Amino acid sequence: MWTNILWVALGGALGTLLRYGINLWALPTGYPIGTVLENIIGSFLLAFLAALFIFYSHHEWFRLSAGVGFCGSLTTMSTFSADTFLLIARDEALLALLYGGTTFIGALFSAFLGLYLGRYLIDWLKVKGLNERE
């Protein structure tokens, strides 16, 4: 159990560092582009990894570190909610709507793309004879 906690913590630390870096880069804008990018990137990665977890299901340490830790700390629903309400509080309801739509549609599209590419990679690995589930 402690080993699993350490794997989650390691992945979480790395995801947090990436999130912090994205926020530093995006800070000068008045639009919360950092949070949009974090959620879109995280949705893509988690869906891509979900496809791989099906293929490589016995690598629990990787699922915990990459999926739960890294993607869990990279993406953020609470910051999305806070950013939305801050935009509304600044009387920028249209921008809040754009932000919500961009985040929602972008995250769903990137998750679909991640799952598609993950399954494509699995099929490619099967063709190459690298099917670990057999």
Structure overview:
This protein is mostly helical and 134 residues long. The chain has one domain. 83% of the residues lie in helices and 0% in strands. It has five helices and no strands. The protein has helices spanning 2-26, 33-55, 60-74, 77-89, 93-127. Helix 1 packs antiparallel against helix 2 (33-55) and helix 2 packs antiparallel against helix 3. Keywords: Cell membrane, Ion channel, Ion transport, Membrane, Metal-binding, Sodium, Transmembrane, Transmembrane helix, Transport. It catalyses: fluoride(in) = fluoride(out). It is found in: Cell membrane. This is Fluoride-specific ion channel FluC. The chain crosses the membrane at residues 36-56, 68-88, 94-118.
List keywords for this structure.
5 helices; mainly alpha; 0% strand; single chain; 134 residues
Shape: globular
Please state the structural category: mainly alpha
- Low-confidence stretches are none
Q: Sheet bearing the most strands, described?
A: none
Q: What is the structure about, briefly put?
A:
It is a multi-pass membrane protein. The protein is an all-alpha fold and 134 residues long.
